[in-house]
Amino acid sequence: VYTWDVTGTEKASYSFNTPSWYTNVDYIECSEYTNWQEVSDWIANINPILPINPNSSLGKYVDKLWKEAKGNTNAFLDAATKFVQNDIRYMGVEVGEYSHRANNPEKVFQQRYGDCKDKSVLLASMLQSKGIQAYLVLANTTVDTGLGDRLSSPLHFNHMIVETNIDGRSQIIDPTISNQGGDIKDRYLPYYGQVLSTSRPKELLGLSKVANRKIKIVETYKMEAGYKAQLLVETIYEGGSADEIRNYFKSTAKNQIQKSYLDYYTRLYPKTEKKENLRFEDNVAHNVFKVFESYSISELGTLDKDSGNRILPLYGNQVNNYIPEIEGSHLGPISLSYPMDINHVIKIVNADGSSLDFPVDNMFKERTAYSYGKHVMTNQDTLNIAYQFSIHSSYIDEKDVDAFKQDFVDRDDYLYNAFFIAENGTLEGADFFGSPSWLSYLIVILTIIITLTFIIKYYHRTSPKYLVFPQRIEYDARMNGWTVFLGFSLVASTIKLLYFFFSDHSLLVESVWIAHKYLNINGLYYSGLIVFEIFANTVLVILFIYTLVLYFNKRDIFPQTVLFVLILNLSFILLDTTFAYLLMPTQVSAQEVIPDILRNLIFTFVWGSYVLKSENIKNVFVNTYSGENEEIRDMNNIEWENISDIK
After folding, report:
1. What is the CA radius of gyration of the chain?
2. How far is the first Cα of the chain from the last one, in angstroms, to the nearest whole number?
3. How far is residue 640's CA from residue 383's CA, in Å, rounded to a whole number?
4. CA-to-CA distance for 476 and 616, rounded, in angstroms?
5. For residue 296, what are the β-bridge partners?
6. What CA–CA distance (Å, rounded) separates 172 from 191?
7. Distances from the Cα of 500 to the Cα of 359, 495, 504, 596, angstroms
8. Over 50: is that where the pLDDT of 436 sits?
9. Omega within 30 of 0 (cis) for the link into 339
10. DSSP per-residue string spanning 289-341
11. pLDDT digits 0-9 by tens, 196-229
12. Is residue 295 within 8 Å of 275, Cβ to Cβ?
């Protein structure tokens, strides 16, 4: 009797979508086996690969396949694999000794069904009867990580597959997967992590993480007048995804498949009808499966009561299916559906063929376990929205969970799009955001009036009072290289501000004032943030332009002004980021705002230090409001006095 007496332990807690191999509590293992060699010997002993009687029904069938393959080992491997995968139904009666021992291959061949052990031993026996090396492999369908850290035991495995070796080329095949396509050498194998093969019994074998499992969906909305549309959908499956969808189509009634596909779009657009029967193309040789759908939508979009416009909401649902849901208090790593590479493209085609000129939007982020991106562009009369999500690992490491939360805790920011549509069947306006907002432009105009009034009436005529004062010892009107470069930097910053403020219409359109409804945030606070952003951007544009005026006129108040503007610019950025994060934390990405803050911090520090310490700045910028240099004026007065004295 082994006793482990532990007291005061806390209840184990696991989060949704945590990998099955993960544990955050202490555990104890016991095993009868010293090493993996003993485990391999045990499985080979109870499941020997038996010779096939050439006169039996199985032996005659194997000879038939060999003749059809004309002695080509790869062709025979392909034929034998397809037979075991597709003609031997997967079903297990796992009782008594057959919980671990496979049935005789002759029996499995006759009854035409068996579990993973039965199918694997049958395939291995068929291959070995024709001189092809075959080995049994133990795998785990739910645990793909950490087996190497456990004690050697057959209890770590719940699945059996087959390894073959032809002309020195090793390959692992899963006989339980039905309807696989592609060349036998490239046959898809799920990622089982570490496996134990009787070919190399002393250690676990790590499987390659190179796997082909792709899906591409292209949805094309051909807009029509009266808020109608024709929807064409083409879905392309490759590799493991093609195997899965092929198996679904072969095992499910066609009318049921058609209904399930139609139901998906009627949930999105209730007034959707089938225009043509669903059809598919199956290229088994290249393992590519295509599905084509055609629908008529008699009422597209929903009416927005606030703006009075009809909105077409679009969502990357297919990508969303592969992004795991987690709780805010998630513990441990996050499980992923590895491997997967999915692309979801949405196309909106204007009814009248009129061209679209929407701003291009590109976003792509690469993480250790996954990558994702979004690309929005227009091509003549078509708007294209392309989503991409790729999974590189079966789980997200615990140290990367916070980054995942930041990426997808509010996935609508990435997956959701909404556009105004007109009754004539076109996307309304020349941009994503609708008509110009007179309220936004009114705030801009009032800010311009207030800022210019303050500058002209109270500031422009003053003399330097803060931080930097003109040099009265020696006047030099020539600017050195750094002072010239400062001017270039100010010009570039001004152009950048003007470009982003007036080319990015997100603050100057009607929809900006109702966006809080789709973001589910407080409308009053959100409106205050928008007013602050419009005000701050307008003030900065005016101040940067004014600073350039002082720079080119070599005004004495330029040094203190440029310092104030740099500090104000940095302060606005920090305040805006803070307010935005407090109001909508899921919309503010640290990966995006921190680099911008650091750039402005460095810009402010570098040029602020230069302005404070530069003698050239003090000697160049000395002109007063009257436009005359004080030192020259004083020198002229002295000269006239001397002349008077001489006279």
Report:
1. 36
2. 126
3. 75
4. 8
5. 230, 273
6. 11
7. 12, 9, 5, 14
8. yes
9. yes
10. EEEEEEEEESS-SEE-TTT--EEEEEE-HHHHTTS----TT--S-EE---SEE
11. 999 999 999 998 877 789 999 999 999 999 999 9
12. yes
Q: What is the pLDDT of residues 341-363, one digit of tens each?
A: 999 999 999 987 877 766 667 78
Q: How far apart are CA 421 and CA 66, in angstroms?
A: 63
Strand 133-139 versus strand 382-391 pairing type: unpaired
Which helix (H) or strand (E) segment holds residue 362: the answer is: strand 361-366
Q: Write down how long the chain is.
A: 647
Token pair for 260: 């399930």
Kindly report the pTM of this predicted structure.
0.68
- Count other C-beta atoms under 10 Å from residue 78's C-beta: 19
Tell me the C-alpha distance between 493 and 639, whole Å. 44
**Residues whose CB is less than 8 angstroms from the CB of residue 520 and which lie 6 or more positions away in sequence, other chains included:** none
Residue 456 identity (one-letter amino acid): I
228-239 sheet: strands from edge to edge: 272-283, 288-297, 228-239, 213-224, 340-349, 382-391, 370-379, 361-366
Which residue in 388, 397, 383, 345 sits closest to 364, CA to CA? Answer: 388
The enclosing H or E element of 373 equals strand 370-379
Residue with tokens 């026996």: 125
Amino acid at 516: H
> Which two three-digit tokens encode residue 366?
């690469």
Does 634 score more than 60 pLDDT?
no
DSSP string, 210-247: ---EEEEEEEEEEEETTTEEEEEEEEEEEEHHHHHHHH
**Alpha carbons 429 and 383: distance in angstroms, whole number:** 13
Tell me the C-alpha distance between 410 and 414, whole Å.
8
Report d(CA 525, CA 507) in Å as an integer.
15
- DSSP-derived pairing of the beta strands 113-114 and 89-90: parallel
Contact between 152 and 169 under an 8 Å Cβ cutoff? The reply is: no
Sign for the CA dihedral angle at 179, 64, 184, 395 comes to: positive
Q: What backbone phi and psi angles, to 5 degrees, belong to 171?
A: -150, 140
What own/partner pairs with CB < 8 Å and gap ≥ 24 does 168-173 have? 170/199, 172/137, 172/197, 172/207, 173/81, 173/123
CB 359 within 8 A of CB 375: no
Neighbours of 361 (CB within 10 A): 12
